[in-house]
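Dear H.,

Thanks for agreeing to be a second pair of eyes. The structure we're designing against is below in token form, covering all 425 positions.
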């Protein structure tokens, strides 16, 4: 329940915040006898909410105004569901906002203290001892410290001007440098490769397809960061994770208004070593393509404001100016031959029927990878026998592909959106 409410609030914050940041905080509010009260808050720098509308936000199918539904999508059920969940846990939920500066949604829940944790397993002998962080965001640096902190680990912050000098200096083999990918230039990388004993370097954010350095995509996921650091520091000590697939290293644009489908596509792309940008409608997809080139586009056919067919035609017109061609893969729930023909006629290159799986998406993207990047990946682990129930079998496949936590996240998003979609049908 705590996770579901947090997912709902964070999803709204991200959806309504075009610039700035979304900050999630939690902490101990107070102690009440044998219970503790945990406080959660989600603060954004989005469009804000008029004071006279604050009292209506937790009513089902209610949004700030009618234009919000058309521009941002959604059903107006997320906050109502959150209020019911918090009330069921004997807690409180509220919001503080005014138009312009954004909004802060919060909730407090009384809980029983957990028993003392068991002794943590000993860290690998080659766990990084010194971590250098080169990034402009203080909050991201704080997240990195929280993810990698441990006995004897030192953290240091580097400015952009300090980075070049730091790369060329002889360093201890147990040092790790985490740096904003936008800060790194080819000349810096040459200095890094040419140093006598280069420290381990991990890029944070979007990277080019031909970059051979390890990278962690944004938004930063603690498990992905730890996995990247552990793999560099001591491959033999890397904790067992979900099966590693071959790294395609592509830059992909995901044009999809359904949060469940978008999340699933992004997680699969992450498992291929791809970076991605998400657009919630065709107009955003065209604008994203105008800003930078992509190796491939996953294009949903049915989207608000501008659908996938119209967006594809716009992109093909733009490509005529420079002779480029980006592979556009249609994503649609229709398996009819007529729909496939319509997608190809609008300029799309291939066709992906929802729900899609790892192997199908990987096969459609694999032909874009140069042979140098097309290294064989370790054979995936054999999944457990599938249960007889079709729903349970689908959830098990999702857990095998993405991990249990992400599978639960996908299911929670679906449960939130399903009532509104069913009512529209």
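And this is the sequence the design step returned. I haven't edited it by hand at all.
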């Amino acid at each position: 329940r705590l996770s579901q409410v947090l997912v709902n609030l964070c999803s709204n914050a991200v959806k309504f915040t075009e610039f700035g940041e979304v900050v999630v905080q939690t902490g101990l509010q107070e102690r009440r006898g044998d219970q503790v009260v945990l406080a959660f808050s989600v603060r954004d720098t989005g469009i804000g909410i008029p004071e006279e509308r604050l009292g209506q936000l937790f009513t089902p199918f209610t949004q700030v105004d009618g234009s919000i539904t058309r521009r941002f999508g959604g059903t107006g059920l997320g906050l109502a569901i959150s209020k019911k969940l918090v009330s069921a846990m004997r807690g409180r939920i509220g919001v503080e906002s005014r138009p312009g500066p954004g909004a802060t949604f919060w909730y407090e829940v009384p809980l029983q203290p957990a028993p003392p944790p068991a002794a943590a397993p000993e860290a690998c002998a080659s766990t990084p001892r010194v971590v250098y962080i080169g990034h402009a965001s203080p909050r991201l640096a704080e997240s990195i410290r929280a993810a990698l902190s441990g006995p004897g680990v030192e953290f240091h912050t580097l400015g952009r001007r300090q980075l070049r000098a730091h790369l060329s200096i002889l360093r201890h083999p147990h040092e790790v440098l985490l740096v904003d990918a936008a800060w790194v230039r080819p000349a810096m990388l040459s200095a890094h490769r040419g140093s006598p004993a280069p420290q381990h370097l991990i890029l944070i954010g979007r990277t080019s397809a031909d970059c051979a350095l390890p990278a962690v995509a944004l938004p930063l996921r603690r498990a992905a960061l730890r996995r990247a650091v552990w793999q560099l520091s001591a491959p033999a000590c890397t904790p067992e994770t979900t099966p590693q697939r071959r790294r395609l290293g592509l830059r992909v644009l995901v044009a999809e208004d359904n949060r469940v489908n978008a999340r699933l596509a992004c997680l699969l792309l992450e498992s291929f070593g791809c970076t991605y940008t998400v657009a919630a409608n065709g107009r955003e997809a065209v604008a994203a393509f105008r800003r930078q080139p992509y190796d491939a586009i996953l294009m949903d056919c049915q989207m608000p404001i501008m659908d996938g067919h119209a967006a594809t035609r716009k992109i093909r017109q733009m490509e005529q100016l420079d002779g480029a061609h980006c592979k556009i893969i249609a994503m649609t729930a229709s398996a009819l031959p007529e729909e496939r023909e319509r997608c190809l006629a609008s300029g799309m290159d291939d066709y992906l029927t929802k729900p899609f799986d790892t192997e199908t998406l990987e096969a459609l993207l694999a032909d874009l990878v140069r042979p140098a990047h097309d290294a064989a990946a370790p054979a995936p682990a054999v999944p457990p026998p599938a249960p007889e129930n079709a729903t349970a079998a689908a959830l098990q496949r999702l857990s095998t592909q993405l991990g249990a936590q992400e599978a639960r996240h996908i299911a929670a998003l679906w449960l939130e959106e399903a009532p509104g979609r069913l009512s529209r049908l």
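Two observations from my side: The CA atoms of residues 71 and 314 lie 20 Å apart. Confidence is low (pLDDT under 50) at residues 120-126, 235-243, 372-387.

Warmly,
E.
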